[in-house]
Amino acid sequence: MSAEAVMAPATGRSILLDGIESRSEQVTFDSINADLLKEVGGPEAEPQRACGQLFLPDGEPRNRPAMVIVQGLGGVKPERELTYAAKLARAGSVALVVDSFAARGKADERDILKALSVTTWSILGDAFGALRLLADHPAVNRDAIGVMGFSWGGMVAVLSAYRQVRQTYLGETPLRFAGHASYYGCSLPRLEDPAAPGAELLVLVGRSDANVSVERTKAICDDLRRGGAQVALEVLDAYHQWDGSDTEKRHVFGALADIGITVTPDNRLVDEHWGAEIAGRFSRTLFMALDLGWDGYHIQRDAELHRRTDGMLFDFVQGMAARAGARPPDAGTVPMAAIGEKPAG
User: Alpha-carbon distance 97 to 80, whole Å?
Assistant: First the structure.
């Protein structure tokens, strides 16, 4: 398969939210494939056409805030990524759901294989590519574009706040994300250089989530604060994915909470348990197998908490819009805690 291929549906996807259908259009944009962060910007990184679903609000298409939505390893789900996009569009924001796995023909693989075959650094390339696309969209205020993600995607949303990471992908351009929201984001990477001047973050983690290290997440948030970021960390009484559709507690194989990776200032990756550099696909696979938590973790929906975190998100987006002078989203139009579904047929 060519690195330029886009293995996504040719049409947009729609979602039923509170009985009302929200439609999207498919978009594609430039990105990369990179095995390692230190390859980004060099000849080892391959060009890639990324893809996503763009949700637009009703009304005058001008001066709107926008959000790039990065999926978890489970892929783009109607009840999660598409639901949040529909809620944001209902409130008056533009939302772009990035599908990193479909673009690379990996949408149907098991989660752990996705993590090994589509790297964090490729997904970050998609996120920054989506930022560039939205910055040029006539409906969008380019200073009010945020990024949010879930689990693996939540980790990507946090990583994109660091100056080192942003400059690796965007160079010296002033373009940047105006806000970073992480839902139960994985806690694997920690940067030696925490500089993130001016970054605004909302980090939501569950106290009972065995897929995320709460203590490491706290340390990462402290790093970011030392680096000049404003970080709101909420440790909640929850399992993983409290905003999902699993009303009964469900066990998932393979927890990531015990994996620690140091990112050096020159973009090398060092496994903290073994003190060795991650140098490519083989070492990445080996260290993942050695460090994975074989007891797994649990997922369970908490509807009341979902309602609260929806409120936190829209407060965050409203603040992001206000700082940029964008048209503020109207959270009063959004069915808080609702979960979308595919339309029949």
Answer: 10
Look at residue 115 in the predicted model and tell me its pLDDT.
85
Alpha-carbon span 88 to 90, nearest angstrom: 5
| Count of helices and strands (H, E) across the chain | 9, 16
SS3 172: coil
Buried residues in 10-28 as b, exposed as e (16+ CB within 10 A): eeebbbbbeeeebebebbe
Asked whether the beta carbons of 334 and 314 are under 8 A apart, the reply is yes
Please list, residue by residue across 219-236, b when 16 or more beta carbons sit within 10 angstroms of its beta carbon and e when fewer do: ebbebbbebebebebeeb
Residues whose CB falls within 8 Å of the CB of residue 267, separated by 6 or more in sequence, listed in order: 36, 37, 38, 40, 164, 168
Q: In the structure, what pLDDT confidence band is assigned to residue 10 with cuts at 50, 70 and 90?
A: very low
Bridge partners of 179, per DSSP, are: 146
Query: What is the pTM (predicted TM-score) of this model?
Result: 0.95
Could you give phi then psi for residue 309, rounded to 5 degrees? -75, -30
C-alpha distances (whole Å) from 133 to each of 97, 136, 142, 191 are: 12, 6, 10, 27
Closest of 340, 344, 301, 329 to residue 53, by C-alpha? 340
